[in-house]
Amino acid sequence: MEYFVNVILPIPLENYFTYRVSEEQARLLQPGMRVAVSFGKSKIYTALVYELHHTPPTAYKAKDIHQILDEHALVNPIQLEHWKWIASYYMCSMGEVFRSALPGALLLESETLILGNKEADLEEVALRDDEFLVMEALEHQSSLRVKDVVSIVEKKRILPLLNRLVKKNAIVLREDLKEQYKPKMLRYIKLNSSYTSEEALQQLLENISRAPKQSRAVLALFQLQATTNKPVKMSDLEIEANVSKAVIRSLIKKEILEEYFVRIDRISHDQGGDYSALKSLNKFQTIALDKITEEFENKNVTLLHGVTSSGKTEVYMRLLESCLNSGRQALYLLPEIALTTQLITRLQKYFGKKLSVYHSKYSMQERVEVWNNLVSKKEKAQLIIGARSALFLPYSDLGLIIVDEEHESSFKQFDPAPRYHARDAAIVLASMHNCKVLLGSATPSIESFNNARNGKYGYAKIDRRFGDVLMPEIELVDIKQQHRKRRMKGHFSQRLLEEITLTLEEKEQVILFQNRRGYAPIVECTTCGHSPQCPNCDVSLTYHQYRDQLRCHYCGHQTPMEKDCQACGNFTLDTKGFGTEQVAEEIKGLFPEAKVGRMDLDTTRGKHSYEKIITAFEQQEFDILVGTQMITKGLDFRHVNLVGIMNADTLLNFPDFRAHERSFQLLTQVAGRAGRTKKRGKVLIQTYNPYHQILKQVSTDDYLGMFQEQLYEREQYHYPPANRLIRITLKDKDYNKLNEASSWFAKALRNVFSQGVLGPEFPVIPRIRNQYLKHILVKSPREVSFAQTKNSIKRIGNSFNAISQYKSVRIIYNVDHL
User: Fold this and answer.
1) Bond before 535 cis per omega within 30 degrees
2) Is the pTM of this model over 0.85?
3) More confident residue, 554 or 611
């Protein structure tokens, strides 16, 4: 009987691929294990076993697998089921989910090895100069890697050279699997076992007495063992004995000392673990906790609607404690990596060794260790805190998922596929584990609040701030009038400057919010109106003063700042608009005594940069913090008394059906950073239109008014939650071909769906990275089967891909488009 396995490959192909295995391999293999397989001409991929069976493929002859990479399953059955749901719901392939879910270090990829062909008669073959250099190198080495050949011939493009040598039968190419994950090993030192007796030890000390450094090292080892009663690290011995590594190595060579290695995790949270340190809850938190517990008895998902600084985190702590005490795992999802910095410290204090952190700022090696700890069901992987990618980890028994700031658009993955929403995917994962989900927010999304109102979700509310601190006083400043009366200093109104002065005098801190990084979004010639554009995208270049550069925020293109206009040659370039860099510079000029910090994508690229900025601001090393929306989300600063929003209109006037909802959420969240302890905080919102309905609702904290207004509009125009959305994006380098292809696709959609198809339309930025884009929006009513709608779209997509002239046009499906 023949045995076969269906495998998932980490490439964007719809089908599973079938490989042949021996009976012995079939006994070892199980779903979720990794195997190396050859695919295409010679490339070797890490594949994941999906199922074992006895049916050979009909379309092709099954190849044998290359090798088995695991002893035990790396991915469990619930994960595979969850991945299958994500692939089906978000219209992508299992391969794309697999590639996104597994840390890169676990996806072993092959590297091409170049070997000399011993059977070839090179004397008869005429070799060019570069070919001769390669063959000469192969005489001294058994094999070469691609990068070796690049350095030998000093050329970047070496594929034509290798092809010529293959044709001349001079070399053979072989694929070699490369393991990327390397465990971290700590080097320890101990005395050789032959010196355990007292006489042998006495003899040893006499023998090395003429070598004072070696003698000092041995005596220091005895001292460390006596005082710590623990194994001695090599690094500790160096410091204690005040000797170099060479001295210790020479003692190892003489077999006086022995070295051994112990494997450790790169990150461990060993401190803390004191549940008694949990703060006692106030009356409102206790009522909310009781309500959540009650709702969990009947419903799997509950929404906690708590105003900013109401102490939602303490309620989460109690629920996490209860979950961990029952012996089950818990997942704490956050929208931003910046939030983990403050939370890790708090959670570590209570949960200590049970805590692990997982997000993209951690290295591949660190993420693999968290994955392996979960597979091994270690104690240190009981509570996982992380961003959306933490959803893909191999949980065995989840008891609780907390989705904090559930309204955040950061939970939606945009590129690459799978384009999933972590909040919705978490709810599905919870149903597979039979666990509970708590969604927390001060400004819930329209969809979640609507589900709670309709009874689909449970609902609990905290409408008082912790310690009975009053909600911040919100004031709208009309900058149109301030401009007219010439009361503006740069981008600061007189009213905002007065409040900043007062706050700094009282030794309090200020947050200034401007949702645009860089110095200025546009550089324009005041003579001819020309503005430098990105050569790859239809967008103007943003000026970054710190590096004196013009940069594109879409493709990363950068160029030095121009001194004169490239169109008319005049030296009349000026900046339009402003970003965080300009705000920080202006405030330094207006308040030279104040220490100013900046938090945006440019200042937080490093691994620990978030932590450094947040800690510095917490410890009052900065008086003023200027930042983009990453400073608005759930951060808890004790001494912030004033928040200034530089320009609210850029949020409100965005061409998106969610613009008003997002503006309300963002402005309310940033306002919530003010006055979180005893004193009532103040928020100043600068705007050209202080009579805008959303701004009025923000100033009166009228969430319900905003919700009812937005829900009515969405129902009228068939947007979520009344309808579901699928955005289909078509991409191509050829403008005319894209227009033609998108019209074909839209027409085919209209033939199937009589209504609810919008487009094709160019987006706000119609070209990114030299690819033109066109959007088609499909609105699917709730009463119509969503699966059926997606199947119809997929069928149209398959027919489209069969048209040869549209082969280069790429289709991207974005389900539940945000």
Assistant:
1) no
2) no
3) 554
To which residue do tokens 């050329």 refer?
155
Q: How far apart are CA 185 and CA 65, in angstroms?
A: 32
Q: Is the dihedral of CA 364, 369, 371, 372 positive or negative?
A: positive
Tell me the backbone φ, ψ of residue 810, rounded to 5 degrees: -95, 135
Taking the C-alpha atoms of residue 722 and residue 536, their distance in angstroms, rounded to an integer, is 38
Tell me whether strands 640-645 and 509-513 are parallel, antiparallel or unpaired: parallel
What is the Rg, in whole angstroms, of the alpha carbon atoms belonging to the chain? 31
Q: Is 678 exposed, middle or buried (0-12, 13-18, 19+ CB in 10 A)?
A: exposed
Secondary structure letter of residue 683 according to DSSP: E
* CA atoms of 811 and 747, how far apart (whole Å): 15
Query: Measured between alpha carbons, how far apart are the two ends of the chain, in Å?
Result: 51
Beta bridge partners of 47: 35
Among all chains, which residue has been given the structure tokens 């794309």?
Answer: 96
**Tally: H helices and E strands in the chain:** 26, 36
Q: Before 760, cis peptide (omega within 30)? A: yes
Write out the DSSP string of 488-499: EETTEEHHHHHH
Q: How confident is the model at residue 634 (pLDDT cuts 50, 70, 90)?
A: low
User: Residue 290 pLDDT more than 80?
Assistant: yes
Q: How many CB atoms lie within 10 A of CB 453?
A: 13
Token pair 């705007």: residue: 687
If we measure between CA atoms, which residue out of 351, 437, 432, 342 comes closest to residue 396?
432
CB 408 within 8 A of CB 335: yes
Angle ∠(195,200,205) on CA atoms, nearest 5: 90
Is residue 185 classed as helix, strand or coil in its secondary structure? Answer: strand
Largest CA distance in the chain: 97
- The Cα angle at residue 220 between residues 214 and 225, in degrees rounded to 5: 135
Query: Which amino acid is present at 177?
Result: L
What's the half-sphere exposure (Cβ side, CA atoms, 13 Å) at 724? Answer: 17
Rounded to the nearest 10 degrees, the angle between the axes of helix 312-325 and helix 337-351 is 50
CB of 562 closer than 8 Å to CB of 506: no
Domains assigned to the chain: 3-108 (3.40.1440.60), 117-171 (no CATH), 193-255 (no CATH), 275-468 (3.40.50.300), 473-516+580-712 (3.40.50.300), 520-577 (no CATH), 723-815 (3.30.70.600)
Those residues whose C-beta lies under 8 Å from the C-beta of residue 352, and which sit 6 or more positions away, are 269, 270, 271, 272, 273, 274
Distance (Å, rounded) from C-alpha 20 to C-alpha 579?
Answer: 58
Are the C-beta atoms of residues 660 and 546 closer than 8 Å to each other? no
Angle of CA points 439, 441, 446, to nearest 5°: 85
Distances (CA, A) of 181 to 369, 393, 497: 9, 17, 53
Where are the extended beta strands (E) located within 733-769?
A: 757-761, 767-768
The residue ranges of DSSP E strands in 59-108, in sequence order, are: 67-68
**H or E element in which residue 184 lies:** strand 184-191
**Please, are residues 617 and 625 in contact by the beta-carbon 8 Å criterion?**
yes
The predicted pLDDT at position 7 comes to 94
3-class SS at 775?
Answer: strand
Measured at the CA of 306, the angle between CA 303 and CA 311, to 5 degrees, comes to 120
Residues 723, 756: contact at Cβ < 8 Å?
yes
Contact residues for 454 (Cβ-Cβ < 8 A; gap 6+): none
When mean pLDDT is compared across 31-40, 164-173, 692-701, 739-748, the lowest value belongs to: 164-173
